[in-house]
Design goal:
This protein has helices spanning 34-50, 72-75, 86-109, 125-131, 159-162, 169-178, 184-189, 200-216, 219-234, 237-251, 255-265, and strands at residues 10-15, 18-23, 55-60, 114-118, 121-123, 135-139, 143-145, 182-183, 195-197. With 284 residues, the protein is an alpha/beta fold.
Length: 284
């Protein structure tokens, strides 16, 4: 990333068309502060607009992936007023929750596949976040919890909406009602994580190898896969098939297929053009 933006909560490195985003506050258990919620969608936008990345890997530092929401977010009177007219307080809180939800949804909205590499605890708001990733991988010591229930509130940033699409609903209901932890083996058995690794180093090596495979494919084909899978998750099969036909009639061109066949015939690795960067209409 040229002129890489400086973040308080993340370190970003782009190498070989893989953007590696690391949570970088291990002394604070990578808790999700106000800055975290502001920076995450900006980070996704910066990667799309200013790098040649074709896949994003999100990992963390320290013993735990993330302790989840920093309670200071909800105790900041500037963000969440605790006095005044109840109706106005409620309207303000609704907008705060919607903004938090939009932050997590940025992982779905970014065109690039997002792979989450998790170690230790993935708690509360952190679980909300990784539910929005395309795929999840973890170390054997990883564990997950819908912590909000134990704190006396209902999880409100995406876990209850996304996790039932990733795991059996009856299990999700149990986890939500009880707030109990579930570990790496259970997460793997239920399909929440793709693979479990014995160490953090082995996990990153494995996830980066998957990322390299993705980055070697046609970025137009990959982003089309993400668009279709996200749409199909939320719509009927009939509607999804129609959307697929519309996408294909507009986006499909034989250029990348021809490059694939030519490279195979020459026993070479195909080289595909990058997607155009995502920028605002008047961005330089």
């Amino acid at each position: 990333m040229s002129e890489s933006p400086r973040y308080q909560c993340f370190e970003v490195d782009v190498t070989d068309r893989i953007a590696h985003v690391r949570l970088c506050r291990p002394d604070a258990l990578n808790s999700m502060t106000r800055e975290f919620w502001l920076e995450l969608p900006q980070c996704m936008q910066d990667i799309e607009a200013n790098t040649d990345a074709r896949v994003i890997v999100i990992s963390s530092t320290g013993k735990h992936f993330s302790a989840g929401m920093d309670l200071g977010v909800f105790t900041d009177p500037k963000a969440v007023p605790m006095t005044g007219d109840p109706g106005r307080m409620a309207e303000n809180l609704r907008r705060v929750v919607l903004q938090l939800q939009d932050t997590v949804t940025s992982l779905e909205k970014v065109r690039l596949p997002v792979l989450a590499a998790l170690q230790g605890g993935c708690i509360g708001g952190a679980l909300d976040m990784v539910c929005a990733a395309d795929s999840r991988y973890c170390t054997r010591d990883a564990w997950f919890t819908i912590k909000e229930t134990e704190l006396g509130m209902t999880a409100d940033v995406g876990t209850l909406q996304r996790l039932p699409k990733l795991m059996p609903e009856g299990v999700v209901r149990e986890l939500a009602y009880t707030g109990r932890r579930f570990g790496a083996d259970e997460a793997h058995r239920l399909g929440f994580v793709n693979a479990v690794y014995d160490s953090h180093e082995a996990m990153l090596e494995g996830v980066m190898e998957i990322a390299r495979t993705i980055a070697a494919n046609s970025p137009l084909a990959v982003t089309g896969c993400k668009e279709m899978l996200n749409f199909s998750r939320d719509h009927s099969v009939e509607d999804s098939l129609k959307y697929m036909a519309n996408w294909q009639s507009g986006m499909f061109r034989p250029n990348d297929m021809m490059k694939t066949f030519q490279a195979q015939g020459q026993k070479q690795v195909p080289e595909y053009d990058d997607l155009f960067p995502v920028k605002g209409l008047f961005d330089s």
